[in-house]
Amino acid sequence: MKLKSIIVEDEKTSREILKNYLQKYCPNVIVLGEAATVEEALVLIRNQDLDLVFLDVEMPYGNAFDLLDRVGDVNFETVFVTAYNHYAIEALNAHASYYLMKPISIDELIKAVDYVTEIRTKEAALQDEVLVTKTKNIDGKISIPTQEGFEVLNTTDILYCKADDNYTEIYLISNKKKLVSKTLKYFEDALKDSGFARVHKSYLVNVNEIVKYIKGKGGSVELSNGKQIMVSASKKSKLLSYFK
């Protein structure tokens, strides 16, 4: 698992040493930026989606604990790096994932990164489990992943879904569109008991929103918003079975 990180350390030499160690011994850590002060660190943290912050305790015009207080809702792991071991209790109270003493031990650095990797991997697995679309668990609703977490939709609000490579475009009755990083097959399986029919390799429609069927080899359907969608010949009989 890749870990997006920044290094917050006022000494340039110390930043370079840590960055070089990470590149050589912890290749899954991607260093997106460096900061020498609390203010610089705040800018990086607020503009990046981070997994890990390497944080020196003592900095000019503030310290690590001031920074974390100003960040507020911390959604990344923190590895404290300091030459002073009397900060250990405060670090624990600040929910640090690991505490490294200077000069940095390569073995301890690897342990710290492995520990954070394990934490983030478990969190990702838990999120994936929550985000798996299971309409049976919440009757009439479906969850779709977003960058911030997930959004819950009423299945009755969905007009149709359209394949877009490994993504799916979800079109709502409100004329809004959602782009989701899941395949159309994923939604076909999730919505199979909610009145949705796969009418084409690229389309999954809400049968309750069909207002007209136009005959043809496969034919086509018209939805309540006027949208017409072609029906594959191989999907025709399954679609028509909904109206028997």
From TrEMBL:
Modified residues (4-aspartylphosphate): D56
GO molecular function: DNA binding; phosphorelay response regulator activity
Keywords: Phosphoprotein
Record carries keyword 4Fe-4S: no
Domain Response regulatory: 4-117
Keyword RNA-binding belongs to the record: no
InterPro entries hit by this protein: CheY-like_superfamily, LytR-like, LytTR_DNA-bd_dom, Sig_transdc_resp-reg_receiver
Short name of one Pfam family: Response_reg
Ranges where the HTH LytTR-type domain occurs: 142-244
Protein name: Response regulator transcription factor
